Amino acid sequence: MAAAVVRHPSGVRLAVIALAVAGLPFSGIAQADEAGKEKTLKQVVVTDQRDAQVERKESYLQKIVIGEEEVERFGDVSVGDILKRLTGISFTGPAGVTKDVRMRGLEKGYTQFMINGELVNSAAKDRQFQVDRLPADMIERIEIIRAPSAEYDSGNIGGLINIVFKSKVDEITRTRVALGKNGSLDVGDAIVQTSKRIGDVDVVLAASYTVGAEDVDEEKETRNAVTGALTATEKKPKPATKSEFLFTPRITWHLGDDRLTFDPYISKGTEDKEEHKLGTGANVAIVTSREEKEEVKHDQVLRLGGRYDGNRSWGSWYAKAAVQETKADKDMVTDAYKYNGGGNFTSAERKREQEDITDVYAQVGFGVAAPLGERHLVRAGVEYKDADFKSRKPKTKQAINQFGVPTAAATPDNGQRDRFDIEEAKTIVYLQDEITLAKHHWLTPGVRWERVTRDASGADKNGVPYSSDTQVNSSNPSLHYRWAIDKNLNFRASVTQTVKLPKFDQLNPTLDTSKNGLTSANAYTGGNVDLKPEEALGFELGFEKAFAGNRGLVGLNFYERRIKDFVESRTNLETINGAARWVKRPFNVGEAHIYGMELDWRFPLVEKRGHVLNIVGNHTEMRGTVDSPSKGEIDVKEMPPRVSNLGLDYKHRPSGSFGGFSVNYIPKFTTKSTNDNDEDEIKTWLSRTTLDLYVGKIFSPLAEVRLIGRNLLSVKKEETTLKGATFEHKIEFSKPTIMLTFESRF
User: Fold this and answer.
1) CA of 716: how far to CAs of 84, 243, 572, 665, 682, in Å?
2) For the chain, what percentages of helix, strand and coil (3-state, to nearest 5) are there?
3) Are the CB atoms for 272 and 257 separated by under 8 Å?
4) I need a labelling partner for 5 at 20 to 30 A (CA). Which of 288, 309, 625, 666 fits?
């Protein structure tokens, strides 16, 4: 391609960093004194999974807690690998790619992410974090909060995931180097963590550099649904590589019973994508279209947060403040070549799209917690957040010849929706009371009031300005009940209300008229300033039983979400400048009903004579329908009926050898719904089974080696789509990942 985008030699960079990190323990050996030589692995402090089970058991919320010990045991590479094994979690994208999280089968925008208890957004319109680029070795614990209380943000209809980075001070330095392959592409990481107490100050430093890859090929056939005749084929290799630098220090100053904490977060990533598409008609020997696409995306998150926690005779209080700047820029070049029925070149065009997104916000908060008598613990707080979101998307188009050489100058090709700004202000007040009703009975009512104002402005492709203002006020009550039937058995019930605000681009009122609008497949695209927030009333009912000294646990939970003003895109005929045109916009299409059952377990099967064997797993049943006034009852898009996980890990303590596996299974399923072009479609996904394996050995505190295999069993995602008289069959082929890791602690 003539206008190639800039690429980065991430594999070479990783190798250099890996060599540097691998050398750290050997310098430590040279400098170690006799006391240092006496260190053993037993002195390394980790978050024991038993502690995580206790935290889950004693919490007033329904949540799942995964501790550091569990993460280390299964040899997870990224946070996405951890989440893949958890209850009710599935992912979009090719088989084995843990990128966009779907909790309880809902689209990714219905799940919120927190870092160390605070919302941290990415520079994207849905603001969801990319969990496949966070290294698992930097995680202290992960909390899956099924139903939020008044203390938590209300925008998590699907659920809330809190990722907590390591904060414990054990004065041990950890290093890890991993090198491997995903198909033909390099993968790996280099991680350094250290902690130290200096007087009254705790210092925890952690840095990582991660290289990931998706070696994926896509094939698609289109046939006449009546006759079965082949009408078109498409083959598209689409490899992607990505890298991420992450720095997460934490400094805590102990001031008597009080503490002051600073926790900066610095992330800088790059993602390179390629697509090489060949299309044919009924005669597969004759190429009718060819497309070459290259895309480079850079993103960064810079966050500085501070919090003061004070303790007084009457209770406790906190004050917090944070500023964050998130940026993302994309440069995508697409060369599209057309051929006639005989396979002869006819024309070609190059399109270049550059996108710059900036999301800046500042927030402050204050809260108190105070007991009132012997039965009440009241928590209250107020927060304010001011955000500024900017999106710029300049585009050009240019004629080229069959060799990719320009034959004319590039001209602007901006759309109507390629420039817009949104200023957002959010005010929050919450109040909740943890009430001890009687011995072993607790009730936690609460309410969270939120006001969100958004001022949107921008200009169309002719420079004509536009603006719109929206304000949403919501009072979201919650009620959580816990009955400790005995010290190891809980009964839980919750009722909560949550709200999902529209995405920024969904409110953009202008039309993208780059297509002709004459058919639903070539519809104009627009936002909807009248789009309402989605409101959900949620119910949870569950039991959890701990046993074997909190090493084992079984949990059973039933859930339901009744979502009002559910949002999906629809394509309708509208009158535009006196002419009838098809326009695709987001609409509140009706009510959605989401419900299901979640079962999770952990059994310590063997723990004697140095042998330790555990089995963990979960099973989720999911159902979801949308009651649309125009379409009747249809299925929620891409929601699998069930997801199952089973894992086993073994360790032989005398020899330091260990190994295990994890299996994820999604059965074949079919959904009947409406696509974005307002066409009825029936989509079927074939069953998928992914297998992860690991084996390793601990030679000493300075040397632990592990061999990891990811996505070994299922390397394809297969789906079919029936819409009208068209039948499509698509397969995405992904590659297994093999990695060798070396870890050291000193």
Assistant:
1) 17, 24, 35, 13, 20
2) 10, 65, 25
3) no
4) 288
